[in-house]
User: Fold DUF6055 domain-containing protein from Bacteroides cellulosilyticus.
Amino acid sequence: KWSYNRMAYTDNFVIFWEKGFGNDLSNPPQLEGHNMKVDLLNLTEKLESFYHFFRDTLKFSKPGSKCYKYRMMVMLNYSLEGTAYGGDYDGEIGALWIAPNR
Assistant:
């Protein structure tokens, strides 16, 4: 379902996308007639902006915590499901599961 061949990362995030998108998020096949295009640059800019606000401005994490060691994980589902989920992987680092319509 997830592959290092379909991955991008920033200083604080790693983004994996499902096989259905193919290798190019800007030109994926449609799903049931719906455009599944993802603007990866916009996504990474928004993620980093929110992350810095919560970490640096609101102080939601402590210096030396795991978010300074690991990247947060974003899993991009090739799905029309309209729900975004937040949680963690193995109790170690935060994670977010989203679809293009979110």
Observations:
- The longest strand covers residues 93-98.
- Strands lie at 7-9, 13-17, 72-76, 85-89, 93-98.
- The chain has one domain: 7-98.
